Amino acid sequence: MKNPALILIDVQKGFDLPFWGSRNNPEAETNIAKLLSVWRSRDLPIIHVKHCSVSPKSPLHPDQPGNAFKEEVQPLPGEPLFTKTVNSAFIGTGLEDYLRENKLNSLVIVGLTTDHCVSTSTRMAGNLGFEVILVSDATATFEREGHNGTKYSAAEMHDINLASLNGEFCEVLSTSKLLASME
Amino acid sequence: MKNPALILIDVQKGFDLPFWGSRNNPEAETNIAKLLSVWRSRDLPIIHVKHCSVSPKSPLHPDQPGNAFKEEVQPLPGEPLFTKTVNSAFIGTGLEDYLRENKLNSLVIVGLTTDHCVSTSTRMAGNLGFEVILVSDATATFEREGHNGTKYSAAEMHDINLASLNGEFCEVLSTSKLLASME
Fold first, then answer.
1. What is the ipTM of this complex?
2. Chain A partners of B164 at a C-beta cutoff of 8 Å?
3. Which domains, ranges and CATH numbers included, belong to chain B?
């Protein structure tokens, strides 16, 4: 990958609330912070994405304290930030234009949650022609219930959603494999 | 739903080839045909979407016999058809403009495959503001392998992908429940 942009999706405090149910990958934020540190040290492009829910009861609504970024990913001055109101970081934002204007064709995607905002943004990025790496242990999701009442663990949701994405929309790599490939 | 448009995604002969591995929901095409028949009998809007892969080795490439629609879903004269080259029916096509120009805000999505083109199109439809029903037994997918080599059955891929979509991007309903709600 040449000049890969690290895109951090919705790493916000509101996801720590019990509202969402049980989560997998508790180490995701540590891995995200590690990648962010590497990107900053090498002066590679970094893009922050924040979810600003239009639903007043959502922990991610701009009036809620949960809308704030987690401490691990506080943007530094000059790092671009895009806010969105839907799952995809490419809908209702200037992200695609920004990437094209800055000739950023290679993206590394991390953040929350694997199967909602991360998956949707990864799918659109791939379909829009960007080269995408999704970092398996720098994303996480929550348990979910199917339309027929079946319950699925966060780990099942995570693993199977990654299997749908890998090779079709992106390459899925662990943090350690990604960093080793950048040595 | 008011004047729901039935969107048939990639119900093409090429998906019958062993190329894709084991599939779930063998009755999907029968359910799709049933819905198509109801839509035609009530003169409700119908939209066909065909995948025209740019990869010469894909069974869905326009030069391959598998690019053809299955017999159950052959478009009738006057029924609109959109061709696409990526998973999303909304990227590189005029589908969004067509829906808005015709004031079609409610969509019923069916077709192949659950976790690739159907999921991606459903996600974008929901994020673009359309009201979406995804029909659980009028879509199907294939077994997949995760980035770490774990194999997942088609049924697992299908069920968990629907659980990620339901309530976030769409409502997931069976064919019989959908038809009952339209009585």
1. 0.97
2. 115-116, 119, 144, 157, 161
3. 5-181 (3.40.50.850)
